[in-house]
């Protein structure tokens, strides 16, 4: 799937992804994946439904869904490069992704965000009901520790 709008290309084609650029952003600019090793980024992309935003040959945005394509999808690693923010690209990316054929009819869509609640609420996301039912294992700063 691919669309073009205002000089930007939105695509789910993995062969277009610039994994080095994605790794650079995640490992140096994101708050959630600081110091993430390249091989982990590469493996995460291989096993996810990925979307890129491109301006010419430059990757300016990225997102991936971790999904079984039947019942569940977790949205992760969403970013727009700082110099391209404020252009509505994240909204367009969400619109492009949410209607993707592999994400239709799922029972649950989830994500975690520090500061983009307003964006995701526009697409039907809300605070989890009964959060006491959810559990997890969280290893803070795992990538920083393994870099030492």
From TrEMBL:
Organism superkingdom: Bacteria
Keywords: Acyltransferase, Transferase
Statement: the UniProt record of this protein carries the keyword Glycosyltransferase: no
UniProt domain N-acetyltransferase: residue ranges: 1-140
Pfam family, one: Acetyltransf_7
SUPFAM superfamilies on file: Acyl-CoA N-acyltransferases (Nat)
Gene3D superfamilies registered for this protein in UniProt: 3.40.630.30
GO molecular function: acyltransferase activity
Coiled coil location: none
EC number: 2.3.-.-
Name recorded for this polypeptide: GNAT family N-acetyltransferase
Naturally occurring in which organism (per UniProt): Pedobacter vanadiisoli
